[in-house]
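Appendix B. One record, verbatim.
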Amino acid sequence: MQPTEKEYAKMTKKASPSSPSFKNCFLAFISGGVICTIGQILTDLYQHFGLSLKDSRNLVSVTLVFLGALLTALHIYDNIAKHAGAGTLVPITGFANSIVAPALEFKSEGHIMGIGAKMFIIAGPVIVFGVTASIVYGIIIWFLKYFIDL
């Protein structure tokens, strides 16, 4: 005998643990803030060594991507993300993690079909939709400026 939809929903709710939403939001806020604070400290440090603000910011991006990739390769980033939550996924370090993790997972399939083909399995759609959205946004802004004289 199959349960009714109402009975099934009740069984599912009973079997599914509730998520501590406030705790998760707090940890995401703190961990994302810590990553951004590290970025600001690096910016100030690079400027202290004589780089311009623009060059410092570029170097911070490179440094954070490198650190995210390195921590992922050392299997540390996933442990941090497990406890810190979504705050580790949003900044640039999460992007590095989303590229390196599949590459490591599929390295046994070879350089081409493993690492090369699977590296962008997670980050690829983000890149495609980000570029597409920026093109659409650019066309809209151009249209508004050119035809409406905004």
